Amino acid sequence: MKVEVRLFAYFDKYLPSGARGRTATVDLPEAASVETLVRHLGIAEEDMEGDYMPYVVIINGEHTACDADLREGDLVSLFPPLPGG
């Protein structure tokens, strides 16, 4: 299954080769989730004090949970933790 992924801020270092700007097409197994995508990109390997790096997930313009299922053609935007409060 193919999904489009957009990575923002310092997550752009995880874009696969062949990315256009901040966007890349990623091939994932059927029934993949956001977690599958994050691991595929290597983001979950970046460890912060023993826990996985938190991130904000937007799928097709809707804020969603990090464990949401993906569908063919989804546009997934991933943001690192945002400062402020």
Would you give an account of this structure?
This protein has 85 residues and is mainly β. The chain has one domain (2-79): Roll (Ubiquitin-like (UB roll)). The chain is 9% helix and 32% strand. The chain has one helix spanning 34-41; strands at residues 2-7, 23-27, 47-48, 51-52, 56-59, 62-64, 75-79. The strands form two sheets. A five-stranded mixed β-sheet has the order 2-1-7-5-6, with no helix packed on it. A two-stranded antiparallel ribbon has the order 3-4. β5 (56-59) and β6 form a beta hairpin. The model has no long low-confidence stretch (mean pLDDT 86).
CATH topology: Ubiquitin-like (UB roll)
Helical content (DSSP H or I, runs of 4+): under 10%
CATH class: Alpha Beta
Count of domains: 1
Q: Tell me the distance between the termini.
A: 37 Å
SSE layout and pairing:
Elements: E1 2-7, E2 23-27, H1 34-41, E3 47-48, E4 51-52, E5 56-59, E6 62-64, E7 75-79
Parallel strand pairs: 1-7
Antiparallel strand pairs: 1-2, 3-4, 5-6, 5-7
Which features would summarize this protein structure in a list?
85 residues; mainly beta; Ubiquitin-like (UB roll); five-stranded mixed sheet; two-stranded antiparallel ribbon; 1 helix; 9% helix
How would you summarize this macromolecular structure in one to three sentences?
This protein is mostly beta strands and 85 residues long. It has one helix spanning 34-41; strands at residues 2-7, 23-27, 47-48, 51-52, 56-59, 62-64, 75-79. The strands form two sheets. The chain has a five-stranded mixed β-sheet with strand order 2-1-7-5-6, with no helix packed on it.
